[in-house]
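seq/struct pair 1
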Amino acid sequence: MNMRGFSALKHVKTMGCLSQPEIYRILAMASQMKRRPNDFREVMKHKTLLMLFEKPSLRTRLSFETGTTQLGGHAIFYSVADSPLGKKENIHDTIKCASRFVDIMMARVNKREVIAELAEHANIPVINALDDWGHPCQILADFQTIQEKFSTKSLAGLTMTYMGDLDNNVTYDLARGAMLLGMNFKMAGPAESDFQFSPKALEECNALAEIGG
């Protein structure tokens, strides 16, 4: 597996943590894995993934655990309901301990502050499997689907329209990713304040649009 172009310790907190070249490298590798799964049967041999769940999800657990097994690795499921994160042990101590035993962590949590603190103190890569500020794994899967349906590698110039609740992790990360890839992003939602796109996220997207064009 060719991972050139990625830093030794790379956290994925939101789509904004990735560059355009990194996104396309991830999508290209995902495409290779889908076409030739047998070529990747041992890329995680002797590697362990810790799956930290504060917010439960059957599909997220199945996809990460099955994927790790198919890549030759081992996944450990840990529910925060069994030992509340940041209460019995603080987040700093939790991730420092985990960093000594496992090779990578994914976390599905309620608040962005938890992902930020995990990444700050981790000696292993941390992947955000959902918080209130981002959902990068889903967005990468969305982009792979778009590539396949449009039979194109580059998504630059395509227009994506999102309709619904604009104040949520999926909308934020779709917009971040679209800006990085040079896509046009349109959104429409209810006028009530509870459904509005975050001004802070909009500032971030404007900055990413300068990078992605």
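seq/struct pair 2
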Amino acid sequence: MKKEPVVSLRDVLDRADAAARRGESAGAAIYPTGFHPLDSYLGGGLRSGELTLLGGPQGLGKTTMALQVARNVAASGCDVVYFSFEHDEVSLLTRLVALEAGLRDGTAAVTLRQVRQAVDATADSPSGLAGRLEGLGGGSDAVKAVGEYAERIVVHRSDGRRTSADVVRSVVAGFVKADRQPLVVVDYIQKVAVERDLPNEDERTTVVVEALKDLALEYGVPVLAIVAADKAGLAKTGRLRIFDLRGSSALAYEADVVLMLNDKYDVVARHHLVYDVANAERFRGWVVVSLEKNRSGLDRIDLEFRKVFEQGRFDTEGNAVAEQLTDDRVFVE
């Protein structure tokens, strides 16, 4: 529902009272990410009216995590509109099928590579895609599982030359008019077209992030946006922080929640490797998700989740990081 710009606190109190009497929440709608214990620190999950940023190095799984959150939200019965600037809809479907198989059959499930091969195959299959994946670690069941929530995920094949913040707003407005409050995923912010001729990337990023924050507030939807690192961040060998993201000052100010991904091997303190070299390989299998900003709760929290990239997913049951972390990368030969 589009929010009115002026409202009496008397009306707000009356609505809160009425909601309490009905046994309903008077606050923000909560969209669980499905990642534990991240949701507990976020007060249950992503919140309507808030902008959440997801940043980190290239190739560490930002899209993987965003798509997995989208899947979890859709599977819970909520709508998702996914603005995809780098992946087509078939690629996203392929990832979801592999992810779904992994959730059901664990590491014995069909791999992302095998699902891609099945999708790309040209041989006739009377049973469709499920038939091509029959006998491959729960592949056919995964196709059926995706089908149960696929209608609730709408993919917008976005274009860096034409898909502006106004286009994003227009698409979301169509959902809201139909009385649907979707999770909005933008993959990724720096690809969103800016109609004004601005001299540098920081200014363009500022325009986009401000527009996404306004969108979240105006329509009462949660927005999850992926953010790329700036040039210095891309060259950095240690831990990426919020100030390593493109347009970092605007991002830090406008966002309600900032999540930063880092490879655990790259950020764990030296003494954890020096005294137990075997840890090095173990740490490579985990990503550290740092809650760098959280307007609704605690921040500066470091959590870890196991990578299962052969199935295009993370293990959603994570832990608080027990080891000391550092901003400087430690190399062990």
